[in-house]
Design goal:
The complex is a heterodimer.
Chain A (H helix, E strand, L loop, with lengths): L1 H40 L12 H9 L4 E2 L3 E4 L3 E4 L3 E7 L4 E8 L6 E6 L7 E6 L5 E9 L2 E13 L5
Parallel strand pairs in A: 1-9, 3-9
Antiparallel strand pairs in A: 2-4, 4-7, 5-6, 5-8, 8-9
Chain B lengths: L4 E7 L3 E8 L21 E8 L2 E8 L8 E7 L6 E8 L4 E7 L2
Antiparallel strand pairs in B: 1-2, 2-5, 3-4, 3-6, 6-7
The chains are: A alpha+beta, B mainly beta.
């Protein structure tokens, strides 16, 4: 009797283990799918980072062209002595900002950086970029489903992209 | 190994200002070395900041960011002593993660 019991429980354990494995595999699959979705949302915009001019990059990022706006304030130096390190920052008074991107029109890859701004994060970013030569710096702000931009020319004395 | 990420996150009670400095070559793939050989691209592609289980800021970078990139932003909320998680992944698949205390 004891024996049957053990066998019974052993079988039972096996079945439970099997169920556990199935459950684990199942669980493993669901987060994976969810993860893949999240990844698709957060996907690195490969195409945008291949674009050779600003119009293409903006289109690849947002699917539409940007309209100039004076509500986007770009702070960049008049003259950058070292193109390898150009401090640029942006602030905007536009509401519902969802993303901010920096572009340099004369760089071999025009898109430099694209930032996602979740709700609750200030629409203000500072960073340092490389500039190949004197060029327009364009900052694009996506707010409330619309795309705005501001442009400023920065003169570069020593380029940051050539050897 | 010491972290490649240095973060200062300061709360003024209402908002938290975050400054991050990361050690990374950020090679764009367009620069030649002294021998004239192209230095292959090696740059951070994605950088994320997480607070309280939520993304508060995310960056997609190309090779146009400066070496040892710096970024500054601010978000509403964030309490002194809370954790802010920062992680990056580069185009070669390397990653680093660190956690900073909000000051």
């Amino acid at each position: 009797m004891d024996r049957t019991d053990t066998r019974f429980s052993a079988t039972r354990r096996l079945i439970l283990q099997g169920a556990g494995v199935v459950a684990l595999v199942g669980l493993g699959n669901i987060p994976f799918v969810a993860g893949a979705f999240a990844a698709a949302n957060d996907k690195y915009p490969e195409d945008a980072f291949k674009a050779k001019n600003e119009a293409d990059a903006i289109k690849a990022l947002y699917g539409k062209p940007a309209e100039a706006s004076d509500k986007v304030k770009l702070d960049a130096p008049e003259i950058a002595e070292n193109g390898a390190v150009v401090p640029v920052s942006v602030t905007t008074t536009l509401p519902d900002v969802t993303s901010i991107a920096f572009l340099v029109s004369e760089n071999p890859v025009v898109l430099v950086a694209s930032y996602k701004i979740p709700a609750g994060t200030m629409p203000s970013v500072a960073n340092r970029i490389k500039m190949a030569k004197t060029s327009n710096v364009i900052v694009v702000v996506e707010a409330g489903g619309k795309v705005y931009s501001t442009t400023k020319e920065v003169k570069v004395t020593v380029g940051g992209c050539g050897g | 190994m010491a972290s490649t990420i240095r973060v200062r996150a300061t709360s003024n009670g209402d908002t938290t200002e975050v400054q991050a400095l990361i050690q990374h070559p950020m090679d764009s793939g367009f620069v030649k070395d002294a021998q004239g050989a192209i230095i292959p691209p090696h740059f951070i592609q994605q950088l994320t900041f997480e607070y309280d289980g939520k993304n508060v800021f995310a960056a997609d970078w190309g090779g146009g960011g400066s070496k040892d990139p710096y970024v500054k932003f601010a978000f509403k909320g964030g309490k002194k002593g809370d954790d802010l998680k920062i992680s990056w992944v580069d185009n070669k698949g390397a990653t680093d993660t660190t956690t900073a205390k909000i000051q």
